[in-house]
Amino acid sequence: MTNPTHRFSAYMAVTALVIAVAVFIEPGALPIAATLLALEIAMYFHLWLSIGAVNKLEVEASIDAFTDREPVVVRIRLVNRGLYPVLLAEYSLGYEPILRLEKGCKAGILTVPSRGVAELVFVFGARVGMHRIDGLTLVVRDFLGLFKSQPLVVWKGSSFKVIPSTEATVLKRLYLYTRSSGLVRSRRPGEGIEFYDVRDYRPGDELRRVVWRIYATRQKLAVWEAERESYQAIVYVINSSRDMWIGAPKATPVEHSARVIASIARYAASRGYLQTAAVVNEYGTRVFGGPVFGRQGLTRVLEALANASLCTLCTEEDQVNWSAALASILPVLPRERAFIFIFTKTTPNTERLLDLVTKLSSLGHRVYVVAPITVTYDISHGLPQKFIDVYRARQLEVAAEELRGIELLRKAGVRVIAVSPQLVAQRIVQALELISA
Description:
The longest helix is centred in the C-terminal third of the chain and has 27 residues, at 385-411. The chain starts with a strand and ends with a helix. The chain is of the alpha+beta class. Strand 19, helix 8 (350-362) and strand 20 (366-370) form a beta-alpha-beta unit. It folds into three domains: 1-162, Sandwich (Immunoglobulin-like); 168-184 and 231-436, Rossmann fold, CATH 3.40.50.410; 189-229, no CATH class. Strands 15, 16, 17, 18, 19, 20 and 21 form a seven-stranded mixed beta sheet that branches. It has helices spanning 6-24, 30-55, 168-181, 212-218, 253-271, 294-306, 322-329, 350-362, 385-411, 424-436, and strands spanning 2-4, 58-64, 72-80, 86-95, 101-103, 107-112, 116-124, 129-140, 147-149, 152-155, 158-162, 185-189, 195-200, 222-229, 233-239, 274-281, 284-287, 292-293, 338-343, 366-370, 415-417. Helices cover 36% and strands 29% of the residues.
């Protein structure tokens, strides 16, 4: 449980020298030698008691995580109910490399008094998806630095989820666009909330739809008829592999895609569309049920986006298995035509992506590949002037590679949405409403 440090060797050498002087040269140095030995034993005994106190600590941890606009706050309270304090301990917090610690220190020194509490607070910048705090470890030391304990895990960590926030400007733009263009009008009678026409009463019509003004003037029952809502089933497939997490914080392709999907899903929920989502990465595919209406569909989509995670154990050789993704998605697809939007980079697995789109299209579904070209606004922060040109050249290289993949898919007949980030949501809604009407 305890290990001597490099100071222990020097301390023992000094102690041995004092003992040698006391034995062979000056007997008066013997009390000093005894004091040095007693101090060493006292430090070891103190460390042993401190380790026992650490093992009995009660840990109360909480993680406050909501949307990507609010910081993630991690609070860890170490409660010591014993009589012996933890006077000197080094703590270390582990977390995923994509998380950024904004307040607090990843490692430091703490003291837990007897029958007291020590609280550590860490504030991280929120990022969309599911992330993990690996845990808190303590290393106990004595005052002289002669001994230290092995790392003691006092908290094993926990995962938390961050849902993407909807962008108010995007939603406002969507409503204004569809309202001015009339895309949401089906111009056919059916279920809906917009007025379509007045017709004669039929057995089974609801009384609340009777137009009593006509009955009062003509003594004839008539009911108002609604205009059928134009909607389809929508399936969002988001790729959360390692390539999608590369970029500026909060502006990576996966985070940009998540915010776009959240905004579209909120709009589609108000229009009564059926919705669901699936998350694909190197781990596999997670599908969150079949398409459902309204608020329930929005909740299902947000839940899926909150489960997008980075594969920390994967290597560059690991790729997304689109064939397995197809097998997981097929059972939840409706028999009728559905809109499937695949948010992913088109490289390096262009051929597998093309095969997936071809198979889904052959089943009668309308498939779109949405390529988030986020490098167009990925700017360099804090780089010296001499590195800016190199950075820009690298960004142009990444953008050119992505555009080549987009061109290959379009030549193969795949519908690809690759526009500026501000217009992605509008293009998707345009595709939905034009085909649904």
